[in-house]
Amino acid sequence: MDIFRNRNFSLMFIGRILTNIGDSLYAVAAMWLVYDLSSSTLYTGLAGFLSIIPKIIQLLSGPIIDRISIRGVLVYSQLIQGIILLIVPIASYFGFLSVGLVLIITPILTTCNTWVYPVQMSALPKILEKRQLTQGNSLFSVAYQGIDVACNAVSGILIGILGAVSIYLWNSIGFFIGAIIFSQLRIKPTARIHSETNSSVKTTTHMNRYFSDLMDGIRLLVRTPLSKLLFGVIIINAAGGATFSVLPMYSDYLGGAGIYGILLMAQALGSLVGALCAPFLKLERIRLGRLYSLAYILSGIAWCLSIYSPWLWVTILVYGLAWFPGGAVNVIINTVVQKGVPQQYLGLIFSATMALSGIALPLGSLIGGTLGIWLNSATVISLCGAAVLLVGLYWSFDKVSRNLPATEHIDEGFFNFSRKSDKSDITGIQA
């Protein structure tokens, strides 16, 4: 491919692969290590919360990214992660490794890694020609999703062979190599006309405006018919977080770390296959409310049934299938927003959607870990599946959701948007 003749892109792509491998392996190893040290879902739920909550920083990164050095962020984020990861094997060697130590470093590592993705995406237009951007974004997306599936598949096996602590050591080495690769980037810095003082003031102004825009986006979103779908998705995301927090204990019951990795692989693969199949299923022809209702009724049923199979391979297969509908409809809802929301409000609506749906994952993780103290892990997973099923049933009976049109019939005139500053209101279709 011609795109790989671009030195900066090739370095960025290789570095991204290393970063994704490290991030995926660490995510599995951290959860398993916390469970191995504590044998408690309360701690795995807390670990899930601490690993997810820093990702909300991505919502705040927009006004800042354009004012910092791309190479500096990429290099130093890798170095910091590499150094912090070394703490775990060192602590294990000298006998002071504890679940508390793992929980302390978890949000620090996630925070460092959270900046990498938006920085890399903002760098692509600076290192590629416009005609190459689609190809570059596609390669980055495939690398991210493909590596996630592959690492989930082998992580459990590696933990079983090497141990979770050894994963931290090898990950550390990978991040140091990533820092060396990123240090070879040669990207021209964005011209800065203003002084540092003016830049700081301008950044603060941008942040204030960003929060104002975010609140505007939330107000715009919750006053449309799509809000019914959004609040249902919040519950579904919370169920996903709760399931994630008890999955190590359930996997231990089924056979150990290897099963944990395979279940995570099935989950990632189900979502990926759903997303890939979405264009071929002609889902845009189905009424949106009915599509979401049917998708998550099927998902909830599979979610519940997956834990009751006497055969392990059926459990893995059905659990993976439970994530297929979500992967498919996520593609559709993005298209709905892009078609039905005026261009000037797209950023507001996407930011608001990420903020509202993203906060459900860490909260769900805490709830699931707490429930796991009193209930066995299989029961918690079953309850999460039941919650997903109930959301799907609610959409099927809710008049507003049921009357939402098919995606192919939605255009920019479907929602009448106006911000508060425009001295008018927002309306949606009436049921």
What does this structure look like?
There is one protein chain. With 431 residues, this protein is mainly α. The protein has two domains: 184 residues, Growth Hormone, Chain: A; 213 residues, MFS general substrate transporter like domains (Growth Hormone, Chain: A), CATH 1.20.1250.20. The chain is 76% helix and 0% strand. Helix 10 crosses helix 16, helix 11 crosses helix 14 and helix 12 runs antiparallel to helix 14. One of its GO terms (cellular component) is plasma membrane. It is a multi-pass membrane protein. It comes from Paenibacillus anaericanus.
Largest sheet data: none
Strand content: under 5%
| CATH superfamily membership of the largest domain | MFS general substrate transporter like domains
Global Rg: 22 Å
H/E element order: HHHHHHHHHHHHHHHHHH
Spatial shape: globular
CATH C-level label of the largest domain: Mainly Alpha
Question: Within the CATH hierarchy, at the fold level, what is the topology of the largest domain?
Answer: Growth Hormone, Chain: A
Helix-strand makeup class = mainly alpha
Termini Cα gap = 51 Å
Give the total of beta strands: 0
Poorly predicted residue ranges = 192-197, 421-431
Portion of residues within helices: over 70%
Counting structural domains, the number is 2
In the CATH hierarchy, what is the architecture of the largest domain at level 2?
Up-down Bundle
Count of individual helical segments: 18
- Which whole number gives the mean pLDDT? 81
